[in-house]
Amino acid sequence: MKKLEINPNAKALIFDLDGTLADTMPVHFWAYKNILVDYGIVFTPELFATLAGVPAVGTIEKLNEQFGTKMNPEEVGHFKEAEYEKIMHKMKPIIPVVDLVKKYHGKMPMAVGTGGYHRLAWKTMEILGLDKYFDILVSSNDVTHPKPHPETFLKCAELMDVEPAICEVFEDADLGIQAAKSGGMMATLVTDYYDVTIGDKI
Fold this sequence. Notes:
41% of the residues lie in helices and 11% in strands. The protein is α/β, with parallel strands linked by helices. It has 2 domains: 12-24 and 92-192, Rossmann fold (3-Layer(aba) Sandwich); 25-89, DNA polymerase, domain 1. The strands form 2 sheets. A 5-stranded parallel beta sheet has the order 5-4-1-6-7, with helices on both faces. The longest helix is centred in the middle third of the chain and has 15 residues, at 73-87. It starts with 11 loop residues before the first strand and ends in a 13-residue tail after the last strand.
């Protein structure tokens, strides 16, 4: 596995959270699976993979389109997040990315830009001991347009008081890479640097 390094031109770093800093994908998968069984949807790893980077409300909307269900996206999105919160203590850090955070902490501005809910995102950071490395976290609650729109990352740059062009974004999802590039930032896909598992157990 190749070593994750920053771009030599980067002067500020922005990290996605789920699947980038935190190996939360298996936890999200099981939260969806446990909730959606009540709506007659068999949630598979393959289906989940097609929804990477989409916030909970958007995921429920897409599932309604796909399965002809009439789930209330806000309501079911909150059910899913509540289920996720029950099992989120099982997550693990993604070591190559966390190592970068520790290496550059205090040396250049850093922020987290996530499609998750604000409160749960901070809770994830606390569980993994990452909250001490970041002051800035932009969540789905803080923006009008989620990824692939660049607003999340542009807001991170604004709060760090840096130009978007000198920011390098680390992401695990194509939607996030798209958001970074459309915001005029450098982008690195972290899944090239660790083994991705959704798995049958957590």
